[in-house]
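lol ok so funny story. i was supposed to be doing the assay writeup but got distracted and ended up predicting the structure for this chain instead. priorities right. anyway since i did it might as well share w the group, maybe its usefull for someone
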Amino acid sequence: MPGDPTLVNDIICSLGEFGDFEVVSGGQPNTAFTTYFQAGSKVPDELPGTTSYDDMTLERAFIPDRDLPLKQWYEQFKLGLEFERTAVKRFQSFNGAVIGQESYTVKPMRVDTPDGKAGDSSVAMIRVVCKVTSRQ
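and the output, tada:
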């Protein structure tokens, strides 16, 4: 996470043309390390290897007219008719100023829409699970 973690108040993620998501998790890097002994050394060094990323989960309140293109992107991507998008995490301070950002190339793995149950007082949320293919 860029910047001082004590200054970060909120994280918002923008996913291409689909807008902002208020609840963001994942996208953390996982780097494999290889133990290496230099010639004549008795103390090992660790060399960084490949880096992969955790899946990124995005959530926001469900609005059918706004979120229909998101569901269509997922369906079209499964058929090979759509492409990856860029997700940008923005780290905001307590007064709303952006103090850092991270960009990722993502592809949709799952889009969960609400069940359609009415009558309870909870907010219907849409959840998008994306596979992070790279960090820009």
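The CA atoms of residues 113 and 126 lie 5 Å apart. The longest helix spans residues 64-78.
back to the writeup now i swear
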